[in-house]
């Protein structure tokens, strides 16, 4: 049974409304509704409170969900990696097309002759924006940190009641952002050198 069904069944068994259960586990009624409709997943502390409230183990509460979440996490990682490759390829294509258009302009090509290269640059930029938007949507839609916390919990790595759940450290700029900045700097240097020597 999925966690959504377990929460509904446990709440019905105790005769609690969503508001009453929300007060017990220190969340809003909307959060309970989201859990029961499979829109979001309880964090580790909420799972502990739910298991205590319903009088069942966390294993029974999340039975079947942990395997599903691990599979979903693996799929999300593969999807994010695919979009990462897409981002890299579109940045390279856009950069080459922009350099080619600049070179064509400096060597007397007419605007009509430059249009195909410009179109490639525009298409690459649109594809880049699409890949970045999809990546951000996946990050927004899936709380991968919570999945990892639950997986760790099921592996016996549970934080104590007085222990704060560890949050990932900020690692600074992502590789994609660094790559985009490097591309922009490279383009600026190319333009500067072109202006000076061509």
Overview of the molecule:
The chain has 198 residues and is an all-alpha fold. It has helices at residues 3-14, 18-25, 29-36, 44-54, 58-62, 65-106, 111-141, 144-154, 175-197. Helix 6 (65-106) packs antiparallel against helix 7. The longest helix is centred in the middle third of the chain and has 42 residues, at 65-106. It is rod-shaped. The model is unreliable at 159-172 (pLDDT under 50).
Keywords:
9 helices; 198 residues; single chain; mainly alpha
Strand tally: 0
Rg to the nearest angstrom? 25 Å
Return the average pLDDT rounded to an integer: 76
Number of helices: 9
How is this structure best summarized?
The protein is mainly alpha-helical and 198 residues long. It has helices at residues 3-14, 18-25, 29-36, 44-54, 58-62, 65-106, 111-141, 144-154, 175-197. Residues 159-172 have low confidence and may be disordered.
Indicate the topology.
Blueprint: H1 3-14, H2 18-25, H3 29-36, H4 44-54, H5 58-62, H6 65-106, H7 111-141, H8 144-154, H9 175-197
